[in-house]
Design brief:
Chain lengths: 110, 113
Amino acid sequence: QKEVEQDPGPLSVPEGAIVSLNCTYSNSAFQYFMWYRQYSRKGPELLMYTYSSGNKEDGRFTAQVDKSSKYISLFIRDSQPSDSATYLCAIGGANSKLTFGKGITLSVRP
Amino acid sequence: DVKVTQSSRYLVKRTGEKVFLECVQDMDHENMFWYRQDPGLGLRLIYFSYDVKMKEKGDIPEGYSVSREKKERFSLILESASTNQTSMYLCASSLGGFRQPQHFGDGTRLSIL
């Protein structure tokens, strides 16, 4: 089983939709959970960072972590065309480097 | 804001050439990383460094080496470029420890002909 698995996509939604992006992981020692957004021809930029189970909200974005199920999600409310990008989850432990998901490409149609 | 600058956005080299990719960060970060990103394979760690003159192999170090002579600068070297090293190369930096988020440059798209 791979350490971090991410839905491959691509995903296309109409403007205004709620988007759910998901990753699962296998190592129960993982403690830190991040979501990155990568626009075309740019580097990944940090979107959300959390280290506990539960929800963390930032504007239209909510990161959710369920450590018991080893499952993390990123929700985007009222999606906009400017949200069209590739989203990568990244997960790490106190003594281990970050492991990235392969990314999912999201397209929000006007 | 953290700024990670990669010296070239696009680079074309020939097979067998020695290639240098440069990365500079302006936030006094201890850790620096080199990744390559390929479709369907995601981000793969080549090398990282947690201090000046210190380096650790990542998941795919073969065919690469690195140099960190100054804290702010981390170089990736392709000793003898091959076509299978055509890729997007991304540099990142972070504060010390593994829990810190990484900040990325905009990448160098390298083509080896």
